Structure formats: C-alpha cells, structure tokens
C-alpha cells in the first residue's frame, strides 16, 4: 500500500475533477489491482483526527443536564454539512431550471427568421449545456462528500464506543451486554454512512416541489394540481413500506441468527448425530426455523416488489393524472381549450425533475433520519454509562522496580451488597518476586487481581502499583489473525526472543502440527484450538511482552500435569524470572518454590508469608482443595506427571469412590511385556515420532509411522486404564485393569472391571491424529490381552522417548520457521465472470423452465408497455398536429386539445388503459421474480440439508 495518498499532494483542479485517481484507473485497466496498489487514507480521514474532533464536542455536551449525541454530530461537522447542503442545493437548482430552458429553446425555434429568436435559442442552449455539466459535477461531489462525512462519523462514533469500553470496569459492564456493544458498532454506527446521502432531501425535496409546482401552475393550474396530488400520495406510501421493510428485516435477522446457531451445532456434532441416527430429527428442527424465515422473507420481497413496481409506474400514473386535468379541466392562458405540445413537453420535464428528490429520496430521508435518531439515542445511552472514579482506582507510580502495595483495601462488586468482595487487604511486594495466591473457590483470588488492575474499584484504602502491567485471565483471549500475531500483539518481531518464548511455552511442538506453522489463522475463522493451546498462547503473549509486572490467573489449570511443570519451570520461573509475578493457582505442590504465598479466605488475607513460615504457623493447605491429597500423590509419581490424561482419569476414579492402594514393586510387573516378540515403542524403533502437549481433554500421541498413531492414557490410583488405538482402525484394542488389593490366603487377586465400567472409562479424542467418532461404537468389543506390550517398560524409557521426540536442534527449528515464512497462509481469490448457464440453472431450480419463461415474458411485456405509453402519447400529439394544420391557415401551433373533445377522451382512455396494464405487469414481474428467487433459495437449502 502506498504510504501517502496522492490526494494530499494534488493541486486544485486535480482534486476537483479527481485527476489524481487516473494512475489507479490506468493500472486497473491493465491488470487486477492488488493490496499494494491501493492508496493509503488521507491524514484528515484518520481515526485519531476525526475521533478527537467529535470527542471534544461530546465532552462539552455531556456536561449539560440533557446531553444529545445527535446535536454533537451537527456541532462537530457543521461546516461539512453546510458545504454539502450548498453543493446539493445548487445541483437541484440546475436540474430544476432545465425544463424552463427547454421551453425557451423550443419557443425560439418556432420562428428562426427573427434574429432575436435565433440569438435567444443559442444563449439558452449554452446555458442548458452549462447547467447540465454543473449538475453532473456537483452530483458526484455531493455524493462523495456525503460518503466521506458518513464514514468519518462512523469511525469516530466507533472509536468513542471503544474508548468508553476501556473506561468501564467489569462492574459497570453489567449494565450492558457484549451483544449490545457489537450491535452498536456493526449496525448503529454504520447507519451514519448512508444517512448523510439523503439527509438534505428532507428540506430540498419540499422546497423544490414548491418551486416546480408554482412554475407548472403558470402554464396550467388544474393539471398541475392533479399531478401534485398523485405525487404527494406516493410519499407516505413509500415511507410506510420502508418502515415495514425495516421491521421485518429486524425479525428476519433474529431468526437467521437462530438458524445459523442450530446449523453450527449440527455441523459441529455431525458425527454424534450420524452415530445415533438423529438426522431426521435435526432436519425437522432446521426446516421449521427455515420455514419461519422464508415466510418473513416472502413479506420482505412483497415490500420490495411494491417499491420497485412503484418506481416503474409512478411516472406514468402522474402523467395520466396530469392529462386528465389537461383534457377535462384545462383553463390555461390563451385559448381556454388548447395546450401547446411545447408546453406539455415542459410539464413532463418538470415532473421528471421531481421524481427522484420527492418520491424516492424524500421517503428514504425520513426513514434514515428516524433510524439515525434512534442510533444516536442508543449510542448516547451507552456513552453516558457511569465510568470508573479516579479516586477509586489504583494509583500508578513510576519506579525502577515493579511494585504493588495494598493498604487496608476493601472493595465491592455490588455496592448495595452487605458483604464486601475484598476486606481489609494489606500487603506490599517489591521487585522481581513470585507471589502465589491460593484459596478455596470464591475466596477472592481473581478479585484480588481485578483490584490491582482497577477493574474492581476499592471503597476504602488505597492501591499503588507499577505502570507497566500485563494480565492473563482464566479464559485466554484469542483474536482473529495468525498465531504469530496473537503472540506478538503488535510488538516488533525478534527472532531470538520469539523462538525462546515458543520453547518456554511448548508451542514449538504445536507448530509442527499446524498446517502453516505460526502463520496459521486462528480465531473465529481459523483452526480450532484446545483450551490448553489457548492458555499457552496467552502465556506466550505475556512472555513476549515487555511488562515488568505480570498477573496470571490460574494459567496451569487448562494443561496437563507434565506441561504445567514445564510451563512453571521454563516460563514462569525461567523466562519471566526478572519480573514481578502474581500467580493464582490450585496446584499447591508448587508452593514451596514461591517467594511469598497469600492465602485468601472469604475475601480476606488469612495468611501471608513464605511456605516454611506458613507451615510453621500451622496452615493446612489440604483444606483449601478437596482432592489435594490425590494431587500430591499424582505429582510424586513421575509416570503420571508424564501422561496428559492422568488428572482426567483420576477424577473419574474419584467419582466412582474407588479405594486407592499403594503400588509396590510387584505392580511394576504390569508394565513388563508378557511376550518378547511384541514390538515396543521406543526412540530406536520410531525415529520419526513426535510429542504433542494439549489440554487436559487431549491425549499424548506418538506417531510411530505414516500409517500408525497410538494414543496412550494411564493413571495411578485404584484403577489403571490403559488404552492404545491404531489409527488405521484395523485393530482397536482396549483393556482396563484394576489393582485393588484383595488378600486371599496370602495371594493378591486382580479384579477385572465390569463391561459398564469399561465402557464408561473409555476416552477418545477428536480429529488430527486421533480416533474418529464413527468407530467409537466398536470400542467396547475391542479387548486385547496384549495391550501391555505397547507400553514403555519404565518411566526412564518414557522420558527418553520424550527427549527423542522433542525438536531440540536449534537449526532444525529455525529452518522450520523459514519454511513457514515461505508457505504462509494467503487469501485465495479468483477473477472472472459467472456463466449464464448458472443463472439458468438457478432459475430452473426456483420455478422450472415454465416459471423462468413466464418471468422473462413479464419483463419483456413491462418494458414494451412502458415504451408503448410513450409511443401512444407521441402518436396522439402527431395526430393533433396534423389535424390542427389541416383545419387552420395559421402556422402550425401544435395544439393538443381540439374542439372535438370526444377524440381526445378516446386517446386519454387508451393511455389510461395502457397505464393500468403497466401497473399490473410491473407488479406481476416483480412478484414473479422474487418468487423464483425464494423458491430457489428454499430448494438449495433443503438440498444441502439432505446431502
């Protein structure tokens, strides 16, 4: 993209006539445009510039008792609005005087023998050409100015909403919803773009109509009155249809959102639906919602058909009303029974100059003005939400070392609540230390971090903290973009630092599995990420940043035990060791490594100090977590910390209330192969294996070769569940063992679980090298006694496999990153045109060959009838001219109305019949066209649903 817009360097004529766009048009004619060819926006169109201007006036306006965002718009852009009003009004004046000039030109051509007539004709022709060119230029300029002003206002209002969100804490956000904010940005702010295109027609239309009707009444009064009555009648009709159209569209949007939500759920769970044969049930649900949507679509198309039809026949109906007045009620100047064709032509031109501004743009102005007032009111209500009070926020201090200081702090999420969220908190931390915040659920751990951030304003006490703070919530936030963009977060790319961050957060292993490495698109339209992957991306974003004070809200909960140990050792205690870290965690086995531990209970600090001090003080950490004993037992066993599904399967065992038993040396025989001929997974036999860390819902996967993938999950408790599945799905085997000790005459007996327990213990994973749901039904019967032969013989061998599978070669990783640079995901686009064959197919799907032919004939008939009205009016005028020339010796004056009124009434009756036929044909044309489209949409949707 060009860094400087050529408009800023263009001279006056170039800006006036848009000559600065010629190079772009020339390049577009030779080859398709790319992103690099597009000009950057001018400085005056920047979001900072337009937002600062609007924000200045809004800050003044909101000090009033009844502030109005609608008034702020006009105060901030009054000069732009005034210039656009002058431009548009000048254009309308040029268009309105054209019929008057045409009348004078025809008058001069009646007798060119007179020198004055010839001179007047030349002068009026010159003025007509000039006004036409001026109107053409001003039309483009007025639309361009309206678009730019609407765009500026949309950008500025969106920025004000965004800034308002940043000044609201979570407590204040309870008065609104995320959906409301999205609607303000996507719908309300966008209305400004089109509103300014038609807003001036609210006063230009009536003024122009008044002047034009006055000029027409100078020629003939009653016909002008008839034409004005018809045109005014169509204005409220158009407004009513526009209002009905808008209301139905709102309802359609709600039903469409519901249908898309249902279809998304169906697509995401299609395997389960297929497995249980629920296709017909869900198809019925989708069809019911689709039927409601299509019924509303039909009403909308009726409104559109009325609008489109009205634009076709409205001109002819108005002319018909005027001709009725000419034939039956004419009392114009001169001959009371005569009206020259020159004057009739002038009247028709006056009417044509009014149609766009009075019958089309004026109703749209009323609609957009109403919508703009509503949008301004909604944006105003959001901007007036009470913000954070500065005296209730943490005070930021500039220090050489990170610091956080609490002094008797009390805070409420609900100011009307009787019980404070945080009560009398006092502590002081300085320097790069690791602070653990522990406590039971609801004790106030996360609220403490929110108080440091300022999201939870304090009622008493005061808070001091460093300026540069980073925060990672429990649910990591991923924005649409590449994985690298999510980690860098707009910071400059540093290869060494970036690589170190990936290794510290184990994301280097995930990059090898993603289709485009760190250039893979993630977020709403990207690949799906697990909770553990999102947590590690959020932690990598924190690590890559430059904040010297980081707050981590339980980042280790979304990953398995071994990955949690790696993140804690390599990232939190390693890469982030020179920063102040406040870590909320439930993994109490990590507490001995903390510099300071804050124990929260009921919103208070129950204890604070080092681990040894708290143990000496009698703090029992096991009371803070129900399953702390099992968590400690899990961390003491190396093999269980090495397996990602250990925590998940352990929780399952606890739910069944199984009694644990110690594992002695005899139990190790379970891990020894019973038959030496069976293959064993090791680094020697599987040199291409790779290790993937995922969240506690995922399994550890070793890729043994291109056709075989094994999934291993094992836990050590009263029950050991061991499962290996070959991804070629030729052999699916499972066996569950229970090692509960039952002593019978000095011998230990192994109890085999029931079939129900075996089925309940089964764990499978989702795509990317794992079991698919369509084979899940056969796993209950896939029991093999040789499953143990696939397992490593010891934890030492398991660690060796991990070391072999992990890419430790620095050069290998750098080469891989360079490969991703070359194969980065890019947008795919095609250039060309749609063949007519597809339009024919679309029509055949909607109404068949017969329906397409009928619709085509209606289009042809409407066009022919529209042209026939003009032809009949011309024939009528020619007949009158001939008879007038034959019945008088005066020069041909082209009188339309003859002494014989019956002849003119016959001609008028024919014209009225043709106009009525035009109304019917144009209505049937629009209805038939939309019926074909609706039928096509319904059949295409049903066909895709059945497929």
From TrEMBL:
> Domain ABC transmembrane type-1, which positions?
99-364
Location in the cell reads: Membrane
Its primary localisation, in coarse terms, equals membrane
Does the UniProt entry include the keyword Transcription? Answer: no
InterPro entries for the chain: AAA+_ATPase, ABC1_TM_dom, ABC1_TM_sf, ABC_transporter-like_ATP-bd, ABC_transporter-like_CS, ABC_transporter_C-like, ABCC_6TM_D1, P-loop_NTPase
Q: Residue spans with biased composition (Basic and acidic residues)? A: 741-760
Domain (ABC transporter) ranges: 404-627
Pfam families named among the record's database cross-references? ABC_membrane, ABC_tran
User: What is a GO molecular function of this protein?
Assistant: ATP binding
What protein family is recorded? Belongs to the ABC transporter superfamily. ABCC family. Conjugate transporter (TC 3.A.1.208) subfamily.
PANTHER family attached to this UniProt entry:
ATP-BINDING CASSETTE SUB-FAMILY C, MULTIDRUG RESISTANCE-ASSOCIATED PROTEIN LETHAL(2)03659
Which protein, by its recorded name, is this? Uncharacterized protein
Organism equals Paragonimus skrjabini miyazakii
